[in-house]
Amino acid sequence: MRMLVFFDLPTETAEDRREYRHFRKALIKNGFLMMQESVYCRLLTTPSVERSVQNMLRQNKPAKGLVQTLVVTENQFSKMQFIVGALNSDVVDSEERLIIL
């Protein structure tokens, strides 16, 4: 499964920008990869991992703004179509538990 996180956070004040950076760093630290600006994705191996990631997001949520999550299966994720642009192959993104580079 994949978890997609969509967020729209204010950056008007210094405090808003600090919370934005804190939230974004928490996503990256917990294995999320940026798909687009304010859209991040992470592979989930089990439902318990999904619950722990949801808890992490709740613990690091900003005071203002909008944060949404969507969990899709690998089959649904693989059907994503690129209308403009292309897949960035610089990122190793695999379902395999062991990746040999």
Describe the protein.
With 101 residues, the chain is an alpha+beta fold. It has a single domain, classed as 2-Layer Sandwich (Alpha-Beta Plaits). It is 34% helix and 23% strand. It has helices at residues 14-29, 47-59, 74-78, and strands at 2-8, 33-36, 39-43, 66-72. The chain is globular and about 40 Å long. The two termini are 23 Å apart.
In short:
By secondary structure, the protein is α+β, with helices and mostly antiparallel strands. The chain has one domain: Alpha-Beta Plaits. Helices cover 34% and strands 23% of the residues.
Number of helices: 3
CATH topology: Alpha-Beta Plaits
Give the helix proportion (percent range): 25-40%
Q: Briefly, what CATH class? A: Alpha Beta
Terminal CA distance: 23 Å
Low-confidence runs of at least 5 consecutive residues: none
What is the residue-averaged pLDDT?
A: 86
- Using the alpha-carbon principal axes, give the shape: globular
Strand-and-helix sequence, N→C? EHEEHEH
The appropriate CATH architecture is 2-Layer Sandwich
Report on the biggest sheet.
Answer: 4 strands, antiparallel
Q: Approximately how much beta-strand content do the residues carry?
A: 15-25%
Tally of discrete structural domains: 1
Radius of gyration: 15 Å
Given helix and strand content, the structural type is alpha+beta
